[in-house]
Here is the input.
Amino acid sequence: MKIEAMLWVLILVSLAFAIVSPQFRKYGLIIVAIGVLTLVAVIALLRQGEVATPVLAKVPPQHAERVDFERSHVEKLDKQDPDAKNRIDVSEVRFDQIRPSNSEPGSFDSIRARLYNDSARYTLTDYAYYLVVQDCVGTVCTTIYDQRGLASTLVPPNQARDVVIDIRAPETRESPLFKLVGAPKILLSIQGTRAYQAALVP
Here is the structure.
């Protein structure tokens, strides 16, 4: 850009001399013509040397969507067997012996429990649950995590099965979902039941 400015100054000065002084008019016009041609050539070279920086389109970050296969499975079977959710009452299914599993200091990534089916007639095939983790310091307990979910099982009438409920980890973090300061208190309750016909259960 400095070269262009110098050329412009030279052209203007030469033009002024050509206009004011008849003695230098011929030489002034020649210098002006040379200056104009040189300026055009310099501008053309500079433009060829410039590399256009491509504009990067703003692409929104892609986040993996969590697909709830169990929910899709239950919704599909509910259409084929609408009465499944009414065969076993929620009061006939319960958890006991609830304890953390695969624990590390201040956290854990799953829950173990014994699931009882007190129905005298139907086999429990799926259940909905609500999990609450509390951090108890002294006599004060604070809820630091909760989770709702669906799970498949096969618990015949008046029997029990041991189950494991995984605590869903976030997809963008490797650190635990929570850190316990005191003692853990785990609350696990049944929110819904399914007893599908045998033909629908693999």
